UniProtKB/TrEMBL annotation:
Subcellular location: Membrane
Lineage top rank: taxon: Bacteria
Residue spans crossing the bilayer: 6-26, 116-134
Main location per the UniProt record: membrane
Keywords for this protein: Membrane, Transmembrane, Transmembrane helix
UniProt protein name: MAPEG family protein
Amino acid sequence: MTSPSAIALTGFISWTLLLLVLMEVIRSQLVLRGKVAANAFTADNAGLSPFMQRLARAHANCLEGLPLFGGLLLVAIATDRTALTDSLAYVLLASRVFQSLVHLASVSAAAVTLRFTAFAVQMGIGVYWAFLLLTSA
C-alpha cells in the first residue's frame, strides 16, 4: 500500500510539473502566433502578461520548496518512517497547491497574506518533520 507521504511527494512533483507544462504550452502558443520570438523569453516571464509572470514565480516557488519538503518526505520513505510524516502529508500538499493557486489568481494584499499563510503552514510542517526525523533515529 502506498503511504500518504509517497502520494504527497508524487503530488508535489506532479503539481510542479503541471505548472511548467502550463507555462510552456502558453509560451509555445505565443511563439506560434508570432507574438514573441522563441529566444525572447526570460526566466521570470518579464515583458509578458502579469499572469505569466505570476505563473513563472509560482513554478519557481515549487522548485524552491521541493528539495526541502520533498527531501523530508523522501527521507521518511527511504527509512521506513512515514508514520512520522503521513498525518500531515496531505496538508503539506494542499497548502502547496493552495499557495500556487492564490499566486496565480491575484497579487492583492489579501492574496499575499493568504500565500504567506499557506507557505508558513508548509514551513511549520517541514520544521516539525525535520525534528521528528532527527530525533527518532
